[in-house]
Amino acid sequence: MENVKVGLKAKIETVAEPKDSAVNYGSGGVDVYSTPAMVGLMESAAKKAVDTFLPDGYTTVGIKLDIKHLAATPIGMKVKAEAELIEVDGRKLTFKVEAYDEAEKIGEGLHERFVIDSEKFLSKLNNKTIK
């Protein structure tokens, strides 16, 4: 974990596809790039920013989002998300995230992720039972 430091950054770019629409997600009634798709792209950028700096067998999981969706994006337009690690508190990582389409900033906010040992996490999950 000593390589995970404030300032790590990553960007991810994609094209808004019909599967990403608010109508498809059920999160809205207009065929535009959805908030859930934007949030997923932001999370992916945050994960990418630290993945290569984690020990083998470790990854991160999202634990908190505080996101604003600022502007609509038509299906077919390029979108990108940027993430910057701004705080490390033990295994809790806080990222500043932003999203843009080809015309403007479409989203911004903070995202927290937690560093986990994948094997231990999955073992605990597999032992989870219905009460």
TrEMBL record:
InterPro entries: FlK, FlK-like_dom, HotDog_dom_sf. It comes from the Bacteria. The active site is at T35, E43, H69. CoA binds at G62. Substrate binds at G62, R113. Signal peptide: none annotated. Residues 19-119 form the Fluoroacetyl-CoA-specific thioesterase-like domain. Pfam families: FlK. PANTHER family: BLR0278 PROTEIN (PTHR36934), THIOESTERASE DOMAIN-CONTAINING PROTEIN (PTHR36934:SF1). This is Thioesterase. It comes from Fervidicella metallireducens AeB.
